[in-house]
Amino acid sequence: xAPSKPVTAALVVIGNEILSGRTRDANLQFLGAELNELxxxxxxxxxxxxxxxTIVETVNTLRATHAxxxxxxxxxxxxxxxxxxxxxxxxxxxxxxxxxxxALLRGHYKPEDVTPARLKMADLPPGAALLENPVSKAPGxxxxxxxxxxxxxxxxxxxxxxxxxxxVGGEPVLSASITSDVPEGRMGMRLSEIQDRYPDADIGSYPxxxxxxxxxxxxxxxPDRDTVNAAADEICDAIRAFDSEPFEDVRP
Amino acid sequence: xAPSKPVTAALVVIGNEILSGRTRDANLQFLGAELNELxxxxxxxxxxxxxxxTIVETVNTLRATHAxxxxxxxxxxxxxxxxxxxxxxxxxxxxxxxxxxxALLRGHYKPEDVTPARLKMADLPPGAALLENPVSKAPGxxxxxxxxxxxxxxxxxxxxxxxxxxxVGGEPVLSASITSDVPEGRMGMRLSEIQDRYPDADIGSYPxxxxxxxxxxxxxxxPDRDTVNAAADEICDAIRAFDSEPFEDVRP
Lengths: 252, 252
Prior knowledge:
The structure is a homodimer. By secondary structure, the first copy, chain A, is an alpha/beta fold. Chain A contains nine helices and twelve strands. The longest helix of chain A has 17 residues, at 225-241. The relative contact order of chain A is 0.13. Strand 2 of chain A pairs antiparallel with strand 2 (40-48) of chain B, so a sheet runs across the interface.
């Protein structure tokens, strides 16, 4: 069976606070793992500042290249939240008040708390489909293949879980991971030979030092279970050839 | 005094394991904070897979745009470590055995442990300046304005500390951060007015929910201390106008 063309995605992390080191991003790791299970491959992420032209250009570059684009950050009630306006502009649109989003916000806040700043979160590009926010109500939105999500990981993750069934992936990539105390500098040539025998598999080598114990974890990734297991078996054999035994062997 | 032109940098995080969610990157946050102190602004980061053409293109795009480019990942002894070859190709060069790097590796390993895979780490672009690795000896390198570093955070960080004095920054950006329980949806309009009065300052608003307490942290960033403090004072006044008191007020 010929493998189907991979369905790819890109993530745009928007926020000065990530680039200044103030905040450590957590959305990339979450999204990469979740998409993988759905058969969508996250193949690129860009971290960019809250600058209109940069957001517009980045969204336009990536939405033309990938099946899905996700943005995180910049959709709150303050002046530095410009993602919705930037995504609108990327599509040649202007923001307008979205009645459904406004109703959600008015339903959530006491009348005296419905501030102009909060209502700004209901200004969306025309044609945007709302993405439900089960935590703090202010919705995200989807415009064509661009999903616009908040930066706060807890909210972003809760929202993703509500719409992820809509995403149409290809074959999920399966993986095996084999860990031992054989260092990658010893395994290198054997691993390279195994890679040559399974040219379509993605074989990675990740050294570690943990609790005083050094070694490497070898990961095989491929959509076909038999291929993953066959390559993983060869890696285990190579480890045993160094008189060692894998102490972790996780298979798909 | 007219502000000097900002000195900018970009980071390229290379590795399938980051995009698949297997590993959470820690180098972006470290580098963003460290560069900031040196007056270098990290204005872009890209996370890309271990794919030759992608690395070459990304490095070439970014090195033409920024004073400094840093790459992390992909410089180990295994077949999936292709960063050195990709950076060489980005400069139109081919890898060759670097005598100084080879001597370092031969000095570190017992003769029987000097495997071909490990010696691969001494294959560098001609003209590369070695970057000392105080942890595991295998050096990184600099080629013109491109700094090639390992992905393991502990090693990357130790190496960075040894060469960071070479980097020539502009004015460091100073910051104040004011935290209170006034939600950003209430502060929004006031904050926007303050931003308008300090158009060159970067004023950010970061909501949080922590230990059952909700609120927002407002951050002012600018190279001039008086500007930072004046804007921060106005933010404190705005918070007090809501009958609240900042419970954290960190100044430069």
